[in-house]
Amino acid sequence: MAQNSIESYSFNSNSWTKLNVQIPSYIGQCVVTNEETKMIYLFGGSNGSNFMEDAYEFDTKNCSTKKLTSMPACRATATGSFYEDKIYIFAGRGSNGDNFILDMKTNEWSEQEQNHAASIQTLPLELGNNPGCFISS
Predict the structure, then answer these.
(1) Which of 61, 104, 105, 110 is at a distance of 20 to 30 A from 37, taking alpha carbons?
(2) Where are the domains of the chain?
């Protein structure tokens, strides 16, 4: 993907198409998707010398972007999950053991303390009737 652009890949034609959308592209951005709305969310990252706190929404239906309220702290290589109109951002470089939750209804962040080592990857799932995620540390 070219810096500051979004491209779409077609499985049927095995080809890339550059979309007419501009969005900052950082190293180590956290990418979260909402399967229901087909939205893609981008959080943080690094410009090579600084960690970022940026947050963006990409609407795949109409190829538009929207800047969201910035994260409470700069973060790169974080991981995240979408669940019940909230996006959970876990750890990452620049983390001091905190996690953030973005409420998509209010576009407001809250903080949730983390009690274990920084996570590398999350996998949204349900354990019985208890929605959650696995965090590798």
Answers:
(1) 110
(2) 23-135
- CATH for the stretch 23-135: 2.120.10.80
Over residues 92-103, the mean pLDDT reads 86
% of the chain surpassing 70 pLDDT: 78
Mean pLDDT computed over 38-62: 91
Report long-range pairs for 77-80 (Cβ below 8 Å, ≥24 apart). Answer: 77/28, 77/30, 78/30, 78/43, 78/44, 79/30, 79/119, 79/120, 79/121, 79/122, 79/135, 80/30, 80/31, 80/32, 80/41, 80/43, 80/122
Q: What's 69's DSSP letter? A: P
Q: Is the pLDDT of residue 31 over 70?
A: yes
pLDDT at site 46: 92
Q: How far is CA 110 from the centre of its chain?
A: 15
Which residues is 31 bridged to in the sheet?
42
Residues 6+ apart with CB under 8 A from 129: none
Task: Read off the tokens for 99.
Answer: 């996690």
Helix, strand, coil shares of the chain, percent, nearest 5, are 0, 50, 50
